[in-house]
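Dear colleagues,

For the upcoming journal club I promised to circulate an example of a predicted protein-ligand complex. I picked one with pyridoxal-5'-phosphate because it came up in last month's discussion. The inputs are reproduced below in full, followed by the predicted structure.
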Amino acid sequence: MTQPASASLPLEHLLPITAGLSPEGHLTLGGCDTVELAREFGTPLYVYDIATVEEQCRLALSAFRAEHEDTEVLYASKAFLNRPFARLVAGLGLGFDAVSGGEIAVLHAAGVAMNTVYFHGNNKGPDELALAAELGVGRIVIDNLGEVALVEAAAAAAGITQGVLVRVSPGVDAHTHEKTTTGILDSKFGVPITSGAAEATVRAILDSPHLTFRGLHMHLGSPIFELEPYVMGIEVMAEFIARLQERLGVAVREFSPGGGFAVAYLNEQHPPAWAAYAQAICGTLRREADARGFEMPHVTIEPGRSIVGRAGVALYTVGARKEVPGIRTFVSVDGGMADNVRPAMYGSRYEALAAERPLAPAEETVSIAGKYCESGDVLIRDIELPHLHAGEVLAIPAAGAYQLAMSSNYNLAYKPAVLFVQGGVAVLARRRETAADLMALDAD
Ligand SMILES: Cc1ncc(COP(=O)(O)O)c(C=O)c1O
């Protein structure tokens, strides 16, 4: 039994929408007591709240379709994917953005309609392109001129005509971390307009008998807390759309502004609402289309983080404590960079809660250290928390995206279990790895 989320539950806007308190005062998610879940399934444990995923999918669809009915939402699989999650998201009316043969295989195995899958990547292999052609992937997003011949060859071999988009780098800085900015010219992704490469790529597609040019794509980076980069990017793309129409007589029937919609990781962060992103993107595109005389294209957006980030909470068990007088106190947990590499890789910051007593006041400043053999394995530097005891459960919100998806077996860590919670019921969506799993692929 749980009480509804009380107004005083801290970090409420970072936690899943069903977050609440048990009668004992424990943090609950989807009606399940997180402390009990940690005891039953072990930690590190990733808990996904289904109601939050459902709400984000519904909001993304409704906000964009209110601005432009002809919009499709493709979930960016790279944020987090397994078969149960793919089935959930497909059932909510979303298509998928995939970036590898592995993601395509999981989507196919989950029973996803493959014509709703868009295949991205700056270096798709011939085997991946052959798989995509064989399974009937809806669109290939061509990333460079050289790829045109590869996609043409795969389509010809499969005896199909493949719809393609071209990913363009519009030269816009989205003010994200250097490692997650993708729309600038100095990026491995996309063809630049200014060098003539983007137009040459479209020409090559038009000359390819097994390819149909459908339109253009951009993705600026992630997470993007501002609307302005989308506006600027679309203005650049619109000029190019008009140029293609004028010079090659070709229409851009589909346009994607990519993903990158932000979620809050820190208490002080408040990302734009879905409606604000939708207005900025569709409003700018329509204004440009009217001004430049092209038809409003079919729009596909590719949110990953914003669909699944807030739904996930990572649970850890607190262990060792090291006090370095006058310098820092480290409190170690039983996970770290193997299940969440974002702090080490991007300097990402998080909040945390004591799951048994989320209302307890802060008593000290500590750094939450991971357990892996890297000094950089610190999940949270300098956070104010109640004095944590060994054995208690620590919850880190906004853990749903790019954590498990980027997880590793570093130090031969077992990848954590994944639970889906809803209506007081927890379902194991992926079991925790075992030593046998770690050795399963080795020669004896
Ligand atoms: C092409 C493309 N689309 C969509 C996304 C998803 O971004 P986000 O999870 O921030 O929405 C990415 C992220 O890397 C991407 O590269």
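Two points we might discuss: Residues 76, 78-79, 97, 120, 219, 222-223, 258-261, 302-306, 401 surround pyridoxal-5'-phosphate (CB under 6 Å). The domain at 20-42+311-439 is CATH 2.40.37.10 (Lyase, Ornithine Decarboxylase; Chain A, domain 1).

See you all on Thursday,
B. R.
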